[in-house]
Amino acid sequence: MPSTPAExxxxxxxxxxxxxxxxxxxxxxxxxxxxxxxxxxxxxxxxLDVVASTALDGAVLDINLAGEFCFPLAxxxxxxxxxxxxxxxxxxxxxxxxxxxxxxxxxxxxxxxEVAQTAxxxxxxx
Length: 126
Hints:
Helices cover 34% and strands 22% of the residues. By secondary structure, the chain is an alpha/beta fold.
């Protein structure tokens, strides 16, 4: 079993990613570490519905969801006090609104341990 930050076990983590293979890889990272996965969700509107109706401890957000940016979702998560991290394959840092520039951002392809450690740091205390 992979190294497991204790802070992740049992957490309910929303995965929002429009690429099936990447979504499965992210899901696997968290499931292997004892998380309950919500999703993966591939569209912004569906993700907003999930956030409005589901208890969450954290979220992993792809910045670009089939041409739609995830920032409305990030606003909804922040309003509910749910921590999140960005995972992106593009040079979208300049597109991130100032209020989200402090959010941890990992680049694809990602390292599973780096994702788990970043999530543990970000989601602890939620």
